[in-house]
Amino acid sequence: MPLLLSLTVRTESWPIAGAFSISRGAKTEAQVVVAELNDGRHKGRGECVPYARYDETAAGVMAAIGALGNTLAFGFDRIRLQQAMPAGAARNALDCAFWDLEAKRAGQPVHTLAHLPAPAPLATAYTISLGAPESMAEAAHAVSARTLLKIKLGAPGDSERIAAIRRAAPRSELIVDANEGWTADNLASNLAACAAAGVTLIEQPLPAGADEALSAIKRPIPICADESVHDRASLAALAGRYDAVNIKLDKTGGLTEALAMAKEAERLGFGIMVGCMVATSLAMAPAMLVAQRARMVDLDGALLLAKDRPDGLRYEGSLVYPPTAALWG
After folding, report:
1. pTM for the full predicted model
2. Which positions ≥6 away from 308 have C-beta within 8 Å?
3. How many helices (H) and strands (E) does the chain have?
4. Which pLDDT value is given to residue 4?
5. The domain made up of 122-320 is a member of CATH 3.20.20.120
6. How far apart are CA 10 and CA 179, in angstroms?
7. DSSP sequence for 39-57
8. Which pLDDT score is estimated for 1?
9. Residues with active-site annotation
10. pLDDT digits (tens, 9 = 90+) for 217-238
11. What is the CATH number of domain 6-109?
């Protein structure tokens, strides 16, 4: 007879080291929601980040997760979860908690249960927040020994910003994230400035509802969808507009869909990037499995915090290492 599950859900606030700024605003703390499943013998945890861009709030995510609490006594599981909740942060926390619980029950790591190779350390990007060209160049110079920097743009003066950063970090590979901050009018000039700086990938230059312009221009740099892509259902509309997709578990609704989405994206010819929100290592850990097949990895969310949770991911230079069982999976 299966063990009955109990569910607890809570919010946590984690201070950011300084501030994290993008084209839509800045924040000084990461608010996350943690779901925990307990069968009386084992516990599984999952963490998500409610994102206002997708009309999510911590209260709403907690309510959505809590509403499933009573169903857990009737054999509700990870597979049924995929149909019971839409893609998004709430499902992500529960999906990852189910994976963690399954691994602890089986005494095997998640990658074995998912029939995947053991994950290896990966080079991750390190994010430079949006700011004045001088301050961004100073921040880039301080981490210029890293192999990959992700530059937040999306405001007037982006050409000056990316040029200053290239001078400050001449050997780092640069990727740019405009967070929907460009327009059809300045797209060509910003692309040219990024090309001149040797940028190798640009995320979401235009608003998700106005990205049709991408199909009508020559793209000197591969363009990656972020806000325009969520799960497998959103992939087909990207043809001709984007060259790659950024897979984030908070968008896909968990590891289950993220793994399936990565496979489908590859089948359709898209390059893969795996990204994250600003959160603790508990949120990064499941994404490490999807990131094994990605060209670009951006799992630095925990690095941007003033302090990570216990047993967090190990970061050494540009490398991030797979989680230990004490953290997740």
Report:
1. 0.95
2. 14, 280, 281, 302
3. 10, 14
4. 78
5. yes
6. 29
7. -SS-EEEEEE---GGGT--
8. 41
9. 152, 248
10. 888 999 999 999 999 999 999 9
11. 3.30.390.10
